[in-house]
Amino acid sequence: MNIKQLLSEKVSAAMVMAGLPEGTNPAVSLSSRPNFGDYQANGVMGAAKKLKINPRELATTVVDHLDLAGIADHIELAGPGFINIHLDKSWLAAQLANMTDDEKLGVTQRGATQEDKKQTVVVDYSAPNLAKEMHVGHLRSTIIGDAVVRALEFRGDKVIRQNHMGDWGTQFGMLLAHLSDKLNANEVAETALSDLENFYREAKVRFDNEEGFADRARDYVVKLQGGDKDCLVLWKLFIDISIAHSEDIYQKLNVTLTRDDIMGESAYNEDLPKVVNELMTKGIAEVSEGAKVVFINEMANKDGDAPVFIIQKTGGGYLYATTDLSACRYRSDELKADRIIIFTDARQSLHFKQVEIVARKAELLPEHVGYDHCPFGMMMGDDGKPFKTRTGGTIKLAELLDEAIVRAKAVIKEKNPDYPEDKLNEIAAKVGIGAVKFADLSKNRTSDYIFNWKTMLSFEGATAPYLQYAYSRIQSIFSKAEIAQANFSADISIIEPQEKALALKLLQLEEVLDAVISESMPNLLCNYLYELASLYMSFYEACPILKEGIDPAVKQSRLALCLSISRTLKQGLDILGIEVMERM
Ligand code: ARG
């Protein structure tokens, strides 16, 4: 159910009947104030201006043709040509009943109509660099990507996750050289690699200071990329251990990525020479100072200097960029993507712009395949500088998440001193992880944001605990009323303004999800859920449910409304990968 879309179709039809050209934008939107109706159609003004006719007269004709029988209570004309639509309460109640009964909460499934085709969407997210442990920099890609993936799936699209792990860079040369020395000294791989961060640091110190080590490291890179068996065995040890690390994190974060979704840089190794050859043959790439490069004329500055995009280094090595070109081909040809979405921090924006230009020119990425690089800003500390440990080191993601749980536990314990330990732990994990995720997901992804424990764990404002609390309050109403939600169903009648506001909000779910999907912006869903929970709180204050002497039909109706809110909150939070609980 998408009210905005339905009204847009109706108003468009009326506009055509009023003599306006097919395709004129009806400009339907939610009204900013209740006295302007529930929805407004403002498209008449623009159309009248174009045709140089009186907007008010045109609006009158459009309204004459506008058939909203059964849907709207009344339609009113305001100002120079605004059309204000007041929806009918029983129509809203009927839509709500359909929504509550449906396991997809009334969200139309892609493919249900001819116009709304099911798409294959390849989503590239998380993608940590395996030589290191995951740090806070990979949090955003991982959780924003996962929320968009879940929204796409809920709407019925086919999603193919691609975890483009950095498992193949030159850094592996130094790591393999260091690891082979350790194994020669009879160390066990698991022990040597138990602290990846430390291992990386040791290797780097040797690389920078020890004579001959850097050369050995470079030999290892060449051997590894050439497919040397012994090297691959060492490399595999490394990869397996670091993948296991990331899997722990994914599980803790309640993220849907699995081992099957990994398609790391190494997977493209064999295709890289082919990509370079193809670009050379097509005359897109050329040799410049020994390297193979593409001059991107489309991005030339005003003096005509084009940026250089290197696809093969002088010594023959391939680059991150070459791999991304190969990935374009794989995703469109093999995976049959209609759209590719990539989540990385904003510093890679130029890289992906260049990849797209080159890939399109080389026909590795057909015109009909969408290519959306979705950049995000950085996590900042309270001091407004990039989020670091006190000593200026990068913060390991695993440690950050553990701290979230410890802090959440303290907050919950303060509220409920007599909860048993195991219950506290269970709630703390859901609240702590939820708080970190919601704080991040609720920000417009393109901007930097300040990471602050206190605000994210607060029970007030747009936070995970606030939403989780709203959910568990509804659960306690049902348990007080001794009603099982599973089989509960009742007619809803919308009487009070708070009830109408809730009904309107609940029926906006599809509209919001579509915006989340098209813009790759989970913050829109966060805002929506926060508004829904706030409306519920006002409804709860204004409209008694279990009060003695209440009309049984009103009680049933309000319970039905509560059920719809509870399902929507749970489902919405699930799309964000945040769990709820019966009591907190
Ligand atoms: N491993 C990269 C990083 O940590 C992100 C990879 C993103 N995906 C891609 N196709 N390049 O920055």
Structure description:
Among the domains are: 3-87, Arginyl tRNA synthetase N-terminal domain (Gyrase A, domain 2, 2-Layer Sandwich); 397-456, no CATH class; 464-575, Isoleucyl-tRNA Synthetase, Domain 1 (Orthogonal Bundle). The chain has helices at 3-17, 43-51, 55-65, 89-101, 137-155, 171-184, 189-192, 196-209, 213-225, 229-253, 272-281, 320-334, 349-361, 397-415, 421-441, 453-456, 464-481, 497-506, 509-519, 523-542, 552-575, and strands at residues 28-30, 39-41, 72-78, 82-87, 120-124, 158-162, 286-288, 291-295, 308-312, 339-345, 370-376, 379-380, 449-450. The protein is globular. It has a four-stranded antiparallel beta sheet. A four-stranded parallel beta sheet has the order 6-5-10-11. It has a three-stranded antiparallel beta sheet with strand order 7-8-9. The protein contains 21 helices and 13 strands. The chain is of the alpha/beta class and 584 residues long. Strand 10, helix 13 and strand 11 form a beta-alpha-beta unit.
Record keyword descriptors for this entry.
alpha/beta, binds arginine, 584 residues, Isoleucyl-tRNA Synthetase, Domain 1, 13 strands, Gyrase A, domain 2, 21 helices, ATP binding
The CATH class label of one domain is Mainly Alpha
Count of runs of 4 or more consecutive helical residues = 21
Q: Residue ranges: pLDDT <50 for 5 or more in a row?
A: none
Binned, the helix content reads 40-55%
Derived structural class: alpha/beta
- The rounded distance between the terminal residues' Cα atoms is 32 Å
What's the architecture of one domain, going by CATH? Answer: Orthogonal Bundle
Task: Please give the number of β-strands.
Answer: 13
- CATH H-level superfamily of one domain: Isoleucyl-tRNA Synthetase, Domain 1
| Strand content range | 5-15%
Rg (C-alpha, Å): 28 Å
Query: In order across it, which strands form the biggest sheet?
Result: 1-2-4-3
Task: Predict the CATH topology of one domain.
Answer: Isoleucyl-tRNA Synthetase, Domain 1
Shape: globular
Average pLDDT for all residues = 94
Q: How would you sum up the major sheet? A: 4 strands, antiparallel
Q: Ligands in the structure?
A: arginine
GO molecular function: arginine-tRNA ligase activity; ATP binding
Keywords: Aminoacyl-tRNA synthetase, ATP-binding, Cytoplasm, Ligase, Nucleotide-binding, Protein biosynthesis
Main location: cytoplasm
Family: Belongs to the class-I aminoacyl-tRNA synthetase family.
